[in-house]
Amino acid sequence: VFAPTGGGKSTLMLHLLGGLAKFEGIRSYIFDSKEGARFMVETLGGIYQSYDTLKLNPLDVGPDTPGNRHRVYSIFKAMTAGMEPGEDDDAGLSHAIDMAFTMEPPHRTLNEIFVESFARRTTLRKAFARWVVDDKGKVGLSAHVFNAPRDSLGTFLEASHMVGINMNEALDDPVLGPPVVAHISAAISRSAAGNS
After folding, report:
1. Sheet strands side by side (includes 162-166)
2. 39-92 pLDDT per residue, tens
3. What is the full DSSP assignment across 123-192?
4. What is the dihedral of CA 67, 69, 74, 77, to 10 degrees?
5. Residue 155 in contact with residue 60, Cβ under 8 Å?
6. Alpha carbons within 13 A on the beta-carbon side of 113
7. What pTM, to 2 d.p., does this model score?
């Protein structure tokens, strides 16, 4: 749906989603901005939350399986988007994923694997420094996003037939947005697969 600001895009989409809400088994997930959908989501019996109040951990994906490794790899790639790729990046990401799966939640976090997973003075370490509190206590710009001991997203997505997530901060930041959206999208995919 394309229209200028104030043209009724959100109203139309929410009206359509409201019509779907009367059918059993239909789940709606709304990536919102500026809380434009909050009233309708809550009026229709859904739940609404800002993404930054969710407890997110892209490493809390369950057991060590090829599918879970691929999910983590995809999110890691999104986290490094925009950096100049190094020749050893894939090996470095694989090493980080190997390290992650040696730990069990709640210890399987980016903060926990950072020091041992990413070699000093590499582009990968520099890229991931944004996402962690390092061993010297330096807090990366986005360290608050993906370091929860457990990921609450699956539980949140299952809590209602309609879920709205306010994505202001993530959508305004070209580095933060892709991995947050990738993580939420992967969780929605898992939720949908579990409900079919």
Report:
1. 28-32, 162-166, 47-50
2. 989 988 999 998 778 899 999 999 999 999 999 999 999 999 877 777 788 899
3. HHHHHHHTTSB-TT-PBPTTTTTS--SS--HHHHHHS-SEEEEE-HHHHH-TTTHHHHHHHHHHHHHHHH
4. -170
5. no
6. 32
7. 0.86
